[in-house]
Design goal:
By secondary structure, this protein is an alpha+beta fold. It has two domains: about 55 residues, no CATH class; about 130 residues, Hcp1-like (Pnp Oxidase, Chain A, Roll), CATH 2.30.110. It is built from four helices and ten strands; from the N terminus they run H-H-H-E-E-E-E-E-E-H-E-E-E-E. The strands form two sheets. Strands 1, 2, 3, 6, 7, 8, 9 and 10 form an eight-stranded antiparallel β-sheet that branches. Strands 4-5 form a two-stranded antiparallel sheet. The longest helix has 12 residues. The termini are far apart.
Length: about 190
Amino acid sequence: MSNDSQDAHVPSRRDALKAVGGVAVGAASFWAAAAAASENIAGASEHSHVVSVPTTIAISVNGVALTNVTDVTSVARSVAVVQSSGSAGARNSPGPRAASSISFSREWNGDKTFQSWFETSVAGKADRRTVTVSILGKRGSILSLLELTGAWPTGWNGPSWDAKTMGSAHATESITCVYESFDYKK
């Protein structure tokens, strides 16, 4: 078999890209193409030619932006399970909605906003606020927007320090809130 016939069976990069329906240049284009190809990847657009990959998180509380946000937990909702018994045996039914919570962390900078908000709960008062979580694309476009209403803190974790990592890692603080309702705005 000659080299020419062997090469005929090996598709060129261009032919391979045509086979998958696009042209990719570099890793960024690969991820953009992957996002457009899958509805399960965060940031995938309804229009395959307009894709933005999530790059940062923005949080505001009552319209005031929080700085240096590092982490947000997933929003989870659940209902209580109510068991009843009858002639047919035990039966499970949905009960009241259980408290839903979210936690978010930020770099600790001495700002006492989280701690002060939590202290109102310690004093027995629910200082209910609106928390907005935005997932932003590379150029600051809002890819996803979630609004939690009636949020109030149930826990606060202050910073911890480690002498071995103090030069390379930032101390963080986090707050956990329950909320009354949520709305996916986008």
